[in-house]
Amino acid sequence: MGSADDTFLARVRTAHRRVFRSLTVPNYRRFFTGHAVSVIGTWMQRVAQDWLVLELTDSPVALGISTALQFLPTLMFGLWGGVLVDRLDRRRTIMATQAASAILAAALAVLVLGNLVQLWMVYALALGLGLVTVLDVPARQAFVTEMVSPENYVNAQALNSAVHNAGRLVGPAIAGVLIATVDVGAAFAVNALSFVAVLLGLARMNPRELHRVPALPRAKGQARQSLRYVWEHPELRACLFLVAVVALLGQNFRVVFPLLARETFGGGAEIYGWLTSALGVGAVLGALASAARVDATAWSLLLWTFAFAGVNVAVAAAPALGLAMAAVVALGIANICFNTLARTLLQIRADPTMQGRVIALHSLVFLGSTPLGAPLTGWVCEQWGARAGLLLAGIPAGLAALAVLPWLRKVRALREE
Predict the structure, then answer these.
(1) Where is the Major facilitator superfamily (MFS) profile domain (predicted)?
(2) Nearest 10 degrees: CA dihedral of 41, 47, 51, 52?
(3) Is 364's pLDDT higher than 80?
(4) What is the pLDDT of residue 219?
(5) Looking at residue 297, what DSSP letter applies?
(6) Within its chain, how far is the Cα of 24 from the centroid?
(7) In 10 A of CB 345, how many CB atoms?
(8) pLDDT tens digits, 154-212
(9) Is 364 in contact with 51 (CB distance < 8 Å)?
(10) Phi and psi at residue 294, to the nearest 5°
(11) How many CA atoms lie within 13 A of 289 on its CB side?
(12) Does an H or E element contain 4, and which?
């Protein structure tokens, strides 16, 4: 009996080391710790901003517009943001973008707590945050390859996803309590303070231990070069196509979930917080499972696309809140496994000198599609309800996976020749 117990404990320790292996790297550990604090505040702000817009307008379309404005700059300038990331020091770029995000959150807190806020102000600050995102997202994603060695890329990306979605679990729940007991502006204030943690983590890093990529020299056509590069690599092309479809129609949770909470299940901010937290529970579970992987393949991405499609339909069909929340947990697992595999696949298959631009293309289709998808989803929900918005997320994702299947079969056939 003792031998069996020892074997089990040894396996648990081995699994633990495999899942959390990137945390043995000091620079990554400092980044991870600061990001873990900051991301809670970020999710608090997202929930608070959505609820603030609904309070000001009572309009799903206005909610979709506020979300769209935050991601419109990525749609317009994302490619050039990737070029800048390949040219600039990534660590210093992230420090600048995080400081700017803190200032924008503080400004919104002052406006709300001072009873000065108007809808156009929320729109303007959402647009400002979107401009920061143009650099922040590709810089943070590409920075992973400077902190850890190639064999840990999948692990580090998965751990980033885990902490991001742990924030999705904790942040909305805290925001719901603050909105109900204090004021919606309190969530914005807490988010502004949370950026101190990630800035300290970045400042405490040892730059000499980073695996820096040589800076990209200035030249014409570097943004277009990334488009040609991805088109010439079928796996990258298939990956970005799936991301485009899923992101455009499938990941507008901030539009669908408030309406699902209020209109479908007759609740308020607390139900919205629960649904978002349920998505976070699934996402954390999915991220931890992804962290044990050592590679990412296009076939795995395809399977998770089918899973994402199926669980969206399951949430839409759920007759009661409890069943819906259980299905949302499954949705969180499928969503994070899809997103983690897509980002990692792009990094593993891309040349290091192209990583900033390839990740910027991912941001372009992942975040930049929101200005189109969020208002469309809002309109569909306004016409036919939140369940229709979930069907809009699931059915096209399944069709996209079927469309990509012949591409990947052709790639595999060529490799086997």
Answers:
(1) 22-412
(2) 30
(3) no
(4) 65
(5) -
(6) 24
(7) 25
(8) 788 778 877 877 777 788 878 888 888 888 888 999 999 999 999 999 999 998 888 87
(9) no
(10) -115, -5
(11) 15
(12) helix 2-19
Residue of 371, 399, 387 lying closest to 69 (CA atoms): 371
The answer to whether residues 360 and 87 touch, using CB atoms and an 8 Å cutoff, is no
Please answer whether residues 25 and 164 qualify as being in contact, where contact means their C-beta atoms are separated by less than 8 angstroms.
no
Burial 93-119 (b: 16+ CB within 10 A, else e): bbbebbebbbebbbbbbebbbeeebee
Residue 369 in 3-state DSSP?
A: coil
82-138 residue pLDDT tens: 788 888 888 999 999 999 999 999 999 999 998 898 899 999 999 999 899 888 988
Closest CA to 289 of 353, 332, 236, 233: 332
What CA–CA distance (Å, rounded) separates 280 from 332?
6
The token pair at 331 is: 């949705």
CA-based end-to-end distance of the chain: 51
Alpha carbons 155 and 138: distance in angstroms, whole number: 18
Q: Are 182 and 66 in contact (CB under 8 A)?
A: no
Distance CA 318, CA 323 (A): 6
Token output for 45: 């702000």
Give the CB-side neighbour count of residue 38, counting CA atoms within 13 A: 23
- For the whole model, what pTM was predicted? 0.72
Tokens 């980073």: give the residue: 210
